[in-house]
Amino acid sequence: MTPRPAGRRLDQLRPLSFKRKFTRTAPGSVLVRAGHTVVLCTCCVEPSVPDFLIGKGKGWLTAEYGMLPGSTTTRKPREKAGKVDGRSVEIQRLIGRSLRAVVDLDKLGERTLWIDCDVIEADGGTRTASITGAFVALADALHALKGDLPNPIREILTDSVAAVSVGLVDGEERLDLEYVEDVAADVDFNVVMTGSGKFIEVQGTGEEATFTRKQLDRLLELAASGISEITALQQQALGKAWPLG
After folding, report:
1. Domain ranges, ordered by start, for the chain
2. Which residues contact 160 (CB under 8 A, 6 or more apart)?
3. What is the longest distance spanned by two Cα atoms in the chain?
4. pLDDT above 80 (res 28)
5. Which residues have CB under 8 Å from 153's CB, separation 6+?
6. 9-240 sits in which CATH class?
7. What is the pLDDT of residue 87?
8. What pLDDT score does 1 carry?
């Protein structure tokens, strides 16, 4: 068996940290670090909604995701208008779905929450780190604007959300894969869950490999355990700004 980088246990997360209020301009701004993966997550608010929601008294949340040119060992070309690659589109839709699952848009009023996740350094798990950090940025943004919101934050945010990867590497079930593990994985999953333990999304596939139902169940249990730890770290980072009971 190949030992894990930094000697991590199979069920151990990478060091995870949140630096809130990383920029002064966005009401929610968080630099999230998961090992060597670094993502800047911001949440901005616009006092308008897409055309299909005008006049309905309902809000909206959408997300964009991108990797900066120097985020990988080989320079990644900048995405230009109208030429966003398929991977980025898939990930930003995932981020949007994940956050909308814990936001009561009917309680938000006619405003749009813009989540932007920009990868500064990529070492595996950029989409999961983006979701995890985006929730902290969202909570901070709502806290900053609570005087202008039509309802209390605890009614707008119904739960927390976090995400983590799991996979089978050398026949071992591992939590929170780094890049070297991700590319070597026979089976790779990205799991999104609420803080209360409900699944939002499970993305998984075998890379020229198969997996059994028992392995699937164990991987989901491993992910749930990891997300419980991540939720506790989110709550610790937000402190008094934690929006839930």
Report:
1. 9-240
2. 102, 135, 194, 195, 231, 234, 235, 244
3. 59
4. yes
5. 139, 142, 143, 146, 243
6. alpha beta
7. 87
8. 58
